[in-house]
């Protein structure tokens, strides 16, 4: 007997429809799964057999073949256990599907006792199902909070295989997802910029970087406050828009990083990979292609401390995603594109010992050693960084001062107001970007209008410092952000001048 049921698979972070065909025929007992299953899918056989036998049903001692279509896409994960079991019970006439099952997807992992466990990527898969017109979904009970974010689906949360059998026979009522959830941003931060003594120049640069989504690097000796500043940048970032939150939630759902307490991501991601991270963990890849840290930092911040200590190959792979805001990973069995619209924040020492240019410490490095150290950063990488500054050690008097610096809340207001100006500008002009850093060449020409003095200043700077076309565009983007902070429509000479100050020359 033949049964056809429907499920979903994850391809990168996107859901794709899967048709599961179950056929039971006479012959020697055998259980085959075809259609490019991975090891986790193949191991479902033993879980399904035990779950059926422990749910007051019997596993048929016949030849069972399950096909996963389309057959040219690798199937991974444990979400097919439940549809396998229901398909086998239907094909062996132990279960009779209600008509609504023709428009239903089934997802869930089975335990040996027949209970249903949660699976990764429910949000992405249900979102795709809804886009395809599927109205019903049988899902694990523990995935209910995540699934309820999507409005207008008939959800059947189940705890056991027995409950899933009742659902498939039409014996249980659906719960209609309302799309109701608390999207209020949580601004209860444990750190604050007011704790940073001195460093007003660096704080100003960090605020501009946050306001425009600009890539930002700090160069300075150990202990001068680079990491301190970087870890407080999340406290001044503007709240996620709903569209951005959905994008980030799809990513985190695909990797099982959501919980009942956090069914939707409300805060911008802030990722801090260790400098020993490989380029695969940073960018993504592997045998079964997975996203890396740059994708997990999508719509947020990727902080690379000890920047030059990262593998050179890993840093070089950042070049394209920093520019294109997307990363495409190609392998022999296919290619997958992941979103990578992150703001890079980096920190590094000026030399191997860390004290080159420090007024209070003597640098022990030779000129060749320093140049070799800096040479780890290629010109194309540095060219893609909008803001680069030198951070100097804070004077002792400022360090022990009890006076608080500017707080994160006041800086966040400035950043949020500047982002609102940008979002309004892009929305009214039909441009689907959210920050100045994402502007293309045409956008720069359209939105970065300079007065005559500003034009002259920029032309002089280009000639004097022999800047590249990319550097020219970076200066305009940063100037646009500074003008937005001051609520100025036209970029003035003061904005260009300040922007040029954030182009620290490492050489």
Task: Give a structural overview.
By secondary structure, the chain is of the alpha/beta class. It folds into 3 domains: 2-176, Ribosomal Protein S5, domain 2 (2-Layer Sandwich), CATH 3.30.230; 193-409, P-loop containing nucleotide triphosphate hydrolases (Rossmann fold), CATH 3.40.50; 411-501, Helicase, Ruva Protein, domain 3, CATH 1.10.8. It has helices at 39-42, 44-53, 81-91, 122-131, 144-147, 161-168, 200-212, 226-230, 242-254, 279-283, 293-296, 312-316, 319-324, 367-374, 379-383, 396-399, 408-428, 441-447, 452-465, 469-485, 493-501, and strands at 2-11, 14-25, 30-34, 63-69, 104-106, 109-110, 116-117, 136-140, 154-158, 175-176, 216-220, 270-271, 284-285, 290-291, 301-304, 326-331, 334-339, 343-348, 387-391. It is elongated. It starts with a strand and ends in a 6-residue tail after the last helix. The mean pLDDT is 89.
- Please summarize the sheet with the most strands: 5 strands, parallel
- The CATH architecture term of the largest domain is 3-Layer(aba) Sandwich
**Could you name the CATH topology of the largest domain?**
Rossmann fold
The overall number of domains is 3
At the fourth CATH level, what is the homologous superfamily of the largest domain? P-loop containing nucleotide triphosphate hydrolases
Low-confidence stretches: none
- How many DSSP H or I helices? 21
Q: Report the mean per-residue pLDDT as an integer.
A: 89
Number of strands: 19
**Structural class, from helix and strand content?**
alpha/beta
Compute the CA-based radius of gyration.
Answer: 27 Å
Shape: elongated
Query: For the record, what CATH class of the largest domain applies?
Result: Alpha Beta
| N-to-C span | 74 Å
